[in-house]
Amino acid sequence: MTAKAVEQQDLATDEVQILQLWGTHGTSQSRADDIYKSTFLLKPGRIGVGAYFWTAIDDSAECIGLAKRLATAWATKSHRSGQYADDADATLAIVEVSIEVGAHEVLPLDDPKLTFRLWSLLRRKLSEMLGIDVDADWAKVNLGKHQRAIHGFIEAFILELEENMGEKFKVIFKSQNCPAYSDPVLPYIGNHSCFAVRDTGIIKSMNITN
Questions:
Q1: Number of separate domains in the chain
Q2: How many CB atoms are located within 10 Å of the residue 73 CB?
Q3: Mean pLDDT score of the chain, rounded to an integer?
Q4: Do residues 99 and 21 lie in contact, with contact meaning Cβ atoms separated by under 8 Å?
Q5: Confidence band, pLDDT 50/70/90 cuts, at residue 15
Q6: Is 158 domain-assigned?
Q7: pLDDT tens digits along 80-115
Q8: Which domain range does residue 62 map to?
Q9: In a domain, 114, yes or no
């Protein structure tokens, strides 16, 4: 095979490996407007540092509709907790995006091996930090008070994977609990797919709806 043929094959392979995805992000109208003007702020969370979305595998009305219901239910929970109380317009809004990313730039944290490794890391780090020696000690701990540390451990895990694999991941997938009242069937299915965008340059379109 000639060098030119190899180059053409590589280009064709690269084209095949480009993934297009859609996602929804629930927030307040004020924050949605800011996002539309200035793009997303990347924040730490359970899938590392990024902008978080409920996954829609295509742009059909049914698929986008489910992702919007999840985003609405999530934002409703945040609204009721007072998270948007100081916003100029606290009414709910949904930011819909489409992204394009290379398959090699996606980290599937739902992979059972990675899930176990992350669980093992978090358990070890938290045990050391909180002085937990036996299983019974976990019942005495409110992990909700240690979210910042947990998010830091998760991000460190991702950065170590990037270093070991020689890749900068732009999208990370990890299923999350479905917010209550988002859909009556979802409790029978389990968690729903979420992804975190770590490079906003892959966002190709953005739309705000209610």
A1: 1
A2: 18
A3: 92
A4: yes
A5: low
A6: no
A7: 999 999 999 999 999 999 999 999 999 999 999 999
A8: 19-109+167-209
A9: no
